[in-house]
Structure prediction request, 126 residues.
Amino acid sequence: MPLTLALVAHDRMKPALAEWAARHAEELAPHALICTATTGGVLQDRNPDLNVTTVKSGPLGGDQQIGGMIAEGRVQGMIFFPDPLAPQAHDVDVKALLRIALVYDVPCAFSPATADLLVAGGLLRR
Ligand SMILES: O=C(CO)COP(=O)(O)O
Prediction:
C-alpha cells in the first residue's frame, strides 16, 4: 500500500536529500512525498518523476503543517536532514516536529546513512 512520507531538509542539506531520493527513486516512486516548499522544489527538480506535494516553507509554518499531519496519523515515515552547523530562526518548530514524530513513533532518519538503513529495513515495502 502506498505510504505518505515526509521529506524535509535545511538549506545546506537539500542537495544531499535530493541525491538520496535519486538513489532511491525506484523505491520512492509508489509513495506520496510531502515536503516543505523549498525542499520540495529542489527534490522535484532533481527527481521530476517522484510524487511530491508541498506545504509551506519550514520557517513559514511548513514544519508545523507536517507535524499536524503526523498527529492525524497521515504520515508513515520521515526523512529530515537538519543542518547541524547552522542555527535556524524557526528552531522551536523544528523541535516540535521532531517531538511529535517521537510521540507517534513515526520511523525517522536524520542523515543519508540512517535513511539508507530505514529503506534497507523495509520501510518502503510495508
Ligand atoms: O525549514 C525547513 C525545515 O525545518 C524546511 O523548509 P524549506 O524546505 O521550505 O526550506
